[in-house]
């Protein structure tokens, strides 16, 4: 599989409509006028992904105070997201990209090395999107620890 290049800072963020954990649709362009942090992860309930989601959750009040909407995105289905959100008490939208097309369009799904072997899967990525819909910053996440705080610092900076 050929991995697409993620949108670069200054480019318009590719629009999408996906279901949230409660089943209701969310369209990215409907959030224009507000900045958005979109982060991709492999799957709710796995140790590293749970850490990442909960790190963003812990900082949710600060993101909201800065006028930023947090969105998590994975290939998990709506029901898995719903159960995870209820169990963990998350307050951000967890979006279901069951077929992976949105993550592919964003360059967040494709070829990678997993435990030393070639694989195809989610490329942990975070995107800061400006109020007008253009990408401001892109992170390829190597280490989850401290990443949410780094994104918050960029939002505030």
Task: Spell out the key features of this protein.
29% strand; single chain; 28% helix; 5-stranded mixed sheet; 157 residues; 9 strands; 5 helices; two-stranded antiparallel sheet; alpha/beta; Glutaredoxin
Structure description:
The protein has 157 residues and is α/β, with parallel strands linked by helices. The chain has one domain (17-156): Glutaredoxin. The protein is 28% helix and 29% strand. The protein is built from five helices and nine strands; from the N terminus they run βββααβαβαββββα. The protein has helices at 47-58, 60-65, 78-88, 101-105, 147-156; strands spanning 17-19, 25-27, 35-40, 68-74, 93-96, 109-114, 117-122, 125-129, 135-140. The strands form three sheets. Strands 5-4-3-8-9 form a five-stranded mixed β-sheet. Strands 1-2 form a two-stranded antiparallel sheet. β4 (68-74), α3 and β5 form a beta-alpha-beta unit. It is globular.
How would you concisely characterize the structure shown here?
The protein is of the alpha/beta class and 157 residues long. 28% of the residues lie in helices and 29% in strands.
- Based on CA atoms alone, the radius of gyration comes out at 14 Å
Overall mean pLDDT: 93
Helix/strand order: EEEHHEHEHEEEEH
CATH topology: Glutaredoxin
The percent range for strand residues is 25-35%
Provide the CATH superfamily.
Glutaredoxin
Summed up, the domain count is: 1
- Percent range of helical residues: 25-40%
Q: Looking at the chains present, what oligomeric state does this protein adopt?
A: single chain
CATH class assignment: Alpha Beta
């Amino acid at each position: 599989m050929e991995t697409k290049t993620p949108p670069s800072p200054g480019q318009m963020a590719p629009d999408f409509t996906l279901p949230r954990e409660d089943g209701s649709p969310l369209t990215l362009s409907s959030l224009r006028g507000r900045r958005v942090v979109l982060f991709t992860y492999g799957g709710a309930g796995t140790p590293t992904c749970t850490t990442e989601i909960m790190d963003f959750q812990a900082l949710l009040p600060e993101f909201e105070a800065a006028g930023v909407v947090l969105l998590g995105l994975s290939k998990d289905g709506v029901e898995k997201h719903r159960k995870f959100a209820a169990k963990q008490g998350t307050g951000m939208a967890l979006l279901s990209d069951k077929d992976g097309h949105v993550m592919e369009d964003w360059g967040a799904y494709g070829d990678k090395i997993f435990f030393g072997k070639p694989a195809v899967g989610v490329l942990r990525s975070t995107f800061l999107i400006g109020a007008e819909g253009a990408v401001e910053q892109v992170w390829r996440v190597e280490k989850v620890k401290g990443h949410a705080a780094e994104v918050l610092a960029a939002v505030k900076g």
